[in-house]
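Q: I have 393 residues here and want to know how they pack in 3D. Can you give me a structure?
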Amino acid sequence: MNTAMPVIDIPTAYGFSATLILVYGVSMLIYARKMSNRFNGLNTFANAILLMAFGVALVSLRGHIPFVISLLGGNTLIGLSSCLLCRAHLEFINAPKPSRIPNAPLLGVLIALLLLFTFILPNSEYRSLALSAFYCSQFFSIAFNVQRLQQQTGQTQYKSLSSIAAVMAAFLALRFIALLFSDQPRDSLAVINGLPFASIVIILVIYIATLNLAIILITSGQLIQQLSDLANQDSMTKLYNRRGLEHQIANGTHLDHVLALILCDLDHFKAINDHYGHHVGDLVLQNIANLLKRSTRVTDICTRWGGEEFLILLPLTEVNAAFNIAEKIRNAVEQLIIPEYPELRLTCSFGISTSHNSSLSLDQIAHQADISLYEAKKQGRNRICIYNANTLA
């Protein structure tokens, strides 16, 4: 007994798809208006989706408006929207100088093929194959460019974008193969080999819905991370603040292991502020912060402890290794030249304390380092003192 393959009315399906894409486009436009100052590419995403909705609407009016406007105009707008989606992805991931219309030559080839198989060698089957090949290449281009930039920059937050585009490219490649070897009409929404391969528009609706969700999740995650950074970072030096240090300790740096703590204080910092002004003092603090980041290890945690004081937490570090790091920093500060004020000569004093058990809290270890720092100041500054309970307590 033969079972007829289900066929969906094309104009109805395309009209419904155009409405869905329009809703997604308007939603993205509203989201872009609120977030475009924080993230690149959102306006381009919105414009591309809205343009796609307009193109799909033209295709849905096939039989009600001139054929050339519906078929060629509609598909050209959809193709142009896919090029804008390529640009939007590149802007969103902060790629350097994306072209105004990526893959424009490929779009030109598609338009030429549509003209060829509409007016010169009319063939709806070849038009369908040309559209499948074009959109497959567009999604492959998005996946490839996003993945390449991720590898170059080490960023991983955009992995979902490349994954979605890669899945769509693979799906369209399968559609191309299915259409090529199928006996079903290729200009319909017939189910081919049990899978709804026939409609590119249905595929695009699924893609736009998934893309919108991915963008919202990515931007929301980055906003949460930015808020966390604001809460845990010192805004001037970009080092951790006390809250950030406590957060790092809570998430992996355990006080029950051997560790060392270096407390560093800029010598005569008040005199710098009084003589040059607070803007120069801020510049000095920023330069010292950068020096600390360059002079410490990946596992060390640099913190602005307050004012001109910096705290460095060194996990799994004995006192001798901590002294060597402090001496390295002390020498680097002596040699530090601030280009805007080359006459400035800076020095720092250091206090070191260590802990070998969990009986001491962070504040207690920092207090011991503060005692030894005071001793370094007392002995003439620009030197390192190590806490000794017998002599400094």
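Q: Anything worth noting?
A: Residues 200-232 form the longest helix (33 residues). The first strand starts at residue 259 and ends at 266.
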